[in-house]
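Sample pair:
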Amino acid sequence: MRKYILLGFAMCLFMTTSAQQPASSQEAIKSSIEKTKQLRANSIVKNIPFDNIGPTVMSGRVVDLDVNPDNPTEFYVAYASGGLWHTKNNGTSFTPILDSAPTQNIGDIAVDWSTRTIWVGGGENNASRSSYAGIGILKSTNNGKTWDYVGLPDSHHTGRILLNPSNSDEVVIGITGHLYSPNKQRGIYKTSDGGKTWKQTLFINENTGIIDLAFAPDNFNIQYAAAWQKDRKAWNFTGNGEHSGIYKSTDGGSSWQLISTKDSGFPTGNGLGRIGLAVYDENTVYAVHDSQYLRKKSEEKKESETLSKEDFKSMTLDAFLKLDDKKLNTYLKLNGFQEKYRADNVKQMVRSGTVQPADLAKYLENANAMLFDTPVVGAEIYRSDDGGKNWKKTHEGYIDDLFYSYGYYFAQIEVDLTNKEHIYTAGVPIIKSKDGGKTFTSINRENVHADHHAIWLNPKMPGHIINGNDGGVNISYDDGETWIKNNSPSVGQFYAINVDHQEPYHVYGGLQDNGVWMGPHDAEQNSRWHQTGQYPWKSIMGGDGMQIQIDSRDPNIVYTGFQFGNYYRINLAEDTSEYIQPKHELGESPYRFNWQTPILLSPHNQDILYLGGNKLHRSMNQGEDWVPISKDLTSGGKKGNVAYGTLTTIDESPFQFGLLYTGSDDGLVHMSKDGGANWKLISSTFPKDLWVSRVVASKHKKDRVYVTLNGYRWDDFNAYVYMSNDNGVTWKSISNNLPNVPVNVIIEDSENENLLFIGTDNGVYVSFDTGSNWQAFHKGIPYVAVHDLKIQAKAKDLLVGTHGRSIYKTNIEPLQLFTDQIKDKVLHIFNIPSIRKTGRWGSTWSKWLKAYKPSINFQMYSSTAGEYKVEIMSSKGILMHTFDFTADAGFNYVPYDITVSEKGRKSFLKKHKNEELSKAANGDYFLPKGSYKVVISGNGTQKTAKFDVN
């Protein structure tokens, strides 16, 4: 196979791919990768660095592990949207090795340890709300220094990769396929030449892909595949269908036969959900099945001390009025009914005919309840001892509280290769059985996250387990009794971030399945906290962390919450919280709240809080009381089990109280100029039905507003960015030279009205001309999804909330100052902050430790690339140091270590006979206190800037 290094492979991306792959999708991916590569190479801001500020301790979702069979202290960890990480010291530290590749989204990995070849299948195999698509299959033979592209671009999501232990060129891959639309590149593909060519050996239909593959440990020819029929829409998820099932191959994946037939003992039909496989030998196979069949209703209803919503659905008027008041009040309180709804007045409402008994169930019914409360069978485990001909369920009854009802997240099972009766299943929690699946015990312990996706069992040392979950990696050596936590990678999956106005300012963020955290922006990312016991970031909310608003008058007052609009007002100083979700009236349809419900503190009055359901709600007293100030601002929702027809973004103009904008998940943008009394639809010219990811009222012009649309939930990967200068009467597209990539957020700079930033599913972009042209803004950030951007105006810092690599920070003062006048200059040096001299310079308290070396970056702009000479001059004109610097066209950071050359030291002492310039402990001489100037010359020009050492 011809090798392509990463920076060059895009141009030849599809030369070796199968003719079966859709040309349009191939070309779209090829075009996007190549355009992104060119934008990064030519960007004038490519040298402005971002620093990752963590946090790390809560980690992010792991999708797969691959462990060195001869040395289990070496292994690879694949994160769903955080890339691939390598450890050689049992997880004490990790190194990212996918950062040079054009994606961080992974479904599965496989390592041929005999040749040290790594295979990465793009696109997470879970079907959750933030499961990102990949770009096909990547391969590396040098531990990730370079990656070869080896095809299947339209696969989007990878189920499993199998490598032939006896032939490193023979690979079988199960493709799950598109998440939101049908496609033909699903099924099973095989290569016998290391990925040069692929043959599709199993195709079921456009809606059924392969979620798992496994082979007999001593016979690669015997393979099993789990087919999964699913249909995900923004408003509904169906994770089951009659075409799900188990297939078998006896020729190494070249041909397949369905073995989960009606006569096999394995379930069949429409309720067949996701399946996971584990093979002990040629005869013994385990399958865990997330059954979506409904449970049988009990013939005898058990008496209960408490009421449930099901009780009210068929309750007669007379039976309701005879209910014990205490029992009814218990139900009302436990289920969050407003205080005004208590037994006496609710019974009066029923007597008067205002409401019906069934309304007490309807009050709690929404799409979320339909998804999570559906009484499906859930997890069940089957075993075959004759190579899949016959299957038998291993247990009696139900395995409750493991998979629950949603069907898109779990189905992993492993068997101990030293004992076929020992099996492990991942869900919520992780459980094990020592009797072949008859009985189970949980091995979740403290310090282990609840949601599990990957299990590795040491075949040479029973009880040694490596576990990957939504909270990172855990290792056990005693069969799950105790666990080590291995969370040093910065792989947090942030949905939203925010900043306050403290000094130092704090950063807040809501994460996928890891709650809401806050911490100082300048906290160092290291392991010293293990000694101090004080990790700088603190958890302030559990669940799936969502948006955060901080009272600008008091940073102790924070508004945040978890999924589906469950928000709280938190007083950090008093360690108290108040639940503040708006409630509908009894008898009305429940409000619809998006997974990430938008909230906003009014810039005009920090007691006023907005919250978006399907209507916009406003509280004038910090969330204590709510009033809906709009009609339904969506298209009304759709029938399904996912909350839809919801507001996704809200903003208020800083120029006028009550100039409000909203955007919805079904493509509608509305505006009100009078605080919600009247609303106007302003999105009629936009592409239809796309998710409104952001609506932003300008800080600089009252009539200006920005909108970004995201087509990801339609498998539409185009960039949609719009600007209006007349409150949405007319719109102008400003996506212009962006590559094909969904856009999640746009923000204006706090000082420069022409400076815009956007966050996409594949990085950050900046525009200096209000969107006419975009520059890739990426140094230090891999190709990762960016969900949120915030600017801390006083510090002039841009904060980047990624969904896979935690939070990044960079100072944007030079960008704010970049005008057309500077752009036309050959050379410009930006302001240099004062340097604070300390006794640490060049010193260390022990000869065994590295000395501290100070440094500073001179920020400059060069209109063209070229060589420059840098001179450091004292206030008396003494040349203290000189060096050369090669500049790129655009912004450049000139590093200077604040040292004085030997020649400069001698010149300084000649002129300052009564002063000393002592050598530091590391042998360097550093600038003494005083005023200096830097002189940069080259490209036919020379510029000077001053700075002080204090």
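The two ends are 60 Å apart (CA to CA).
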